[in-house]
Design brief:
The chain is of the alpha+beta class. It contains eleven helices and nine strands. Helix content is 40%, strand content 19%. Strands 1-4-5-9-8-7-6 form a seven-stranded mixed beta sheet, with helices on both faces. Strands 2-3 form a two-stranded antiparallel ribbon. It is rod-shaped, with a radius of gyration of 43 Å. The site of 3,4-dihydroxyphenylalanine (DAH) has 11 residues, from β8 and β9.
Amino acid sequence: MKEKVGSIRESLNTDIKEVKTIQDIVELKSKYIGKTGLISELTKGMAELSIEEKKEFGMIINELKNEANSLIFGKEEEINNAILNEKLNKEAIDITLPSKKIKRGSLNPMTRITEEFEDLFVSMGYTVYDGPELETDENCFRKLNLPLGHPARDTQDTFYLKDEVDEYLLRSQTSTAQVRAMEDNTEKGPIRIVCPGKVYRRDEDATHSHQFMQIEGLVIDKNISMADLKGTLETMMKHVLGEKTEVRFRPSYFPFTEPSVEVDVTCFKCGGKGCNLCKDTGWIEVLGAGMVHPDVLTMSGYDPKVYQGFAFGTGLDRMAMFKYGIPDIRTIYGNDLRFINQFDRKDEE
Ligand code: DAH
């Protein structure tokens, strides 16, 4: 009996080393611990033994049984784990694979740049003011110090709905918002607005469209000076064109501001060294601005001795053309998907 136990143990130890598959385990189970397995056979052989011997061998056989169980089941678990691991490795989802691209719409560059301006000014306490595109001659010109026949009207020839005087026209500048904002303000108190919107002129070439976009800014308050204007425009240009951008004021003339300035920024293509974009000057003209003319304040009900203000106006298309390198303004309004798709996720790049 003892010999038998010894040889079963030995063969089990050899067999277990050979096990590779679950099938091998099944076979081992039936060979050793199954109903007709070697260990059960041993138990059967005990029938002829004396009670003393039964006790002794019972213990020995039990020990063997426990040993066989733990060996075989341990091995089974090992194999199952290996199978599972292999499966996990094989079937794992590779999250580094590029996903299927879901086409997302993209914002027109004009919407994008308009929102950029709006966000900045709202963050500085301005209100976004909306004015109509269909305007009166009075709001578009006369109340901005451009009386009938004023030569500065020539550069802003637009589309008229009847005649030049009393009927409507398509606004040629967002500066009309200055008049409207001042007249709307019944208390004649402080104003801080930006007005982005479409304007119209009789122009059409690669850099001029009959319809384009401007953004106007107007601040009216007590003790407003050119320093406020300069600080505001510096903040604005750095925000839109980059931190390194510098701003330069040049004396200019606009009928509705006094003094008036034209504002240049350092060329963002060459950083001010000179290139084809800035025509080797290092500067690019981007907007007109100035201190609101006392007559303009007076015409809309403000007392220029109490209130001062600054105003600025810039072409949003021009800004977008600079920022995104768009060579022809007409493509912005061309409805060509190949154009718009280029701005897909531009800000996330
Ligand atoms: N409205 C002017 C234009 O269309 C631009 C401009 C110049 C706006 C000076 C202003 C300003 O507010 O102060 O050319």
